[in-house]
Amino acid sequence: MATGDxxxxxxxxPDFSEAVKQFYEPLYRFAYSxxxxxxxxxxxxxxxxxxxARKAGDLRDQAKLKSWLFTTLYREFLRVRRRSSxxxxxxxxxxxxxxxxxxxxxxxxxxxxxxxxxLESIDEVYRTPxxxxxxxxxxxxxxxxxxEVPIGTVMSRLSRGKSQLKAALAEHxxxxx
Amino acid sequence: MIPEDHRVQxxxxxxxxxxxxxxxxxxxxxxxxxxxxxxxxLDNEQEFDNxxxxxxxxxxxxDELLLTILTAAAEATATxxxxxxxxxxxxxxWKHPAFLSAAASIAVLLMIGVLFLKPxxxxxxxxxxxxxxxxxxxxxTVKDYDLRTQELDSIHDFxxxxxxxxxxxxxxxxxxLVPFGCETFDWRGRSVTGICLRSTATxxxxxxxxxxxxxxxxxSHPTQAQIHPAGDNLSMAVWACNTKIYVFIVxxxxxxxxxxx
Lengths: 177, 261
Hints:
Number of strands of chain B: 7
Order of helices and strands of chain B: HHHHHHHEHEEEEEEH
Shape of chain B: elongated
Oligomer: heterodimer
Largest interface: A-B, 55 and 45 residues
Order of helices and strands of chain A: HHHHHHH
Radius of gyration of chain B: 26 Å
Helix content of chain A: 55-70%
Radius of gyration of chain A: 17 Å
Largest sheet of chain A: none
Number of helices of chain B: 9
Strand content of chain A: under 5%
Strand order of the largest sheet of chain B: 1-2-3-4-7-6-5
Number of helices of chain A: 7
Structural class of chain B: alpha+beta
Structural class of chain A: mainly alpha
């Protein structure tokens, strides 16, 4: 599990190169799911590591490097978003009481681009925790810390997000996947 | 019928994780142990999650992103950009004037060193040094490719069809070089082509820039490849051949560059 322990030890400075190599891929996926385009995703990923390069010494709890990086990227995204437009706090009601029937095999035969495309179709309020959940195995608590919402809210959004994800997969994969 | 609260609590549960910080899950997990329907639903959820996670992991970052991050972050920290500058930044950092001007300044200083301290290897010219510094800074930025492809033939066809400088030959005949893509841009009214490639033999990222010799009539054009350090762990070779000027930049030592020529 990539917690950051392997690249930072107590009382030492983080190994920047190792941190980049370990986390740039999941951070890029998270950034892409937020920005929905490769250029901004690259920019946000780079910006995150630039901040890390400057502030690595301030990171007291070294075991939280992964959460810190995702939090930093998310805040950068919100900062840029706030400046350029409005931030949606819209949380749509889930219309379906039950998630559509989706069998595990439906997720097996899609490639990375299709998975990201499907994820992009999810409402942002659910997509963000869902992406954090899938891209780097973040726990409920870590996701809650990054998004600054209670754990119960994370659980609720993940559940609803997965329902939307399955509905999108079911729609895209008919009749067979 | 699976209770909705249990469905919500367990939808993203993972068996390989501790529940120490997830006390809400304990009751639901205990219920799952006694409820075959809930247990089966949970198994399916876990399997679905694992497969979707595996699919999403196939979505890769651009090949050059890793190198760009390492290069530019090192440059930015070396130039001592303050955190206050970062907080007040209103654009992406590598586009920040402070970073670009610092990178350009370094490149210009290096080129001055190259041109005046080693006049025997590269004669002074009126504009080529500026072009060299420009493409050195350009090589450190994220590319906005006009064409993204791994086929050299596709790049050739694209450049020819757009009537922009196209390489007549690649270093080492291109045998070990696989492109990421190409980009063309205007520099002081001249058309310049940039191609980003990876050497499969050395796993180095290299940048090849091409311009027309005729666009630099007042400059001396080195007909033999001349190799120079070009900044923090960057090496550059320049040469002219037939009607083109080539600038070849690699992240690495001069020895690394030699291996690629």
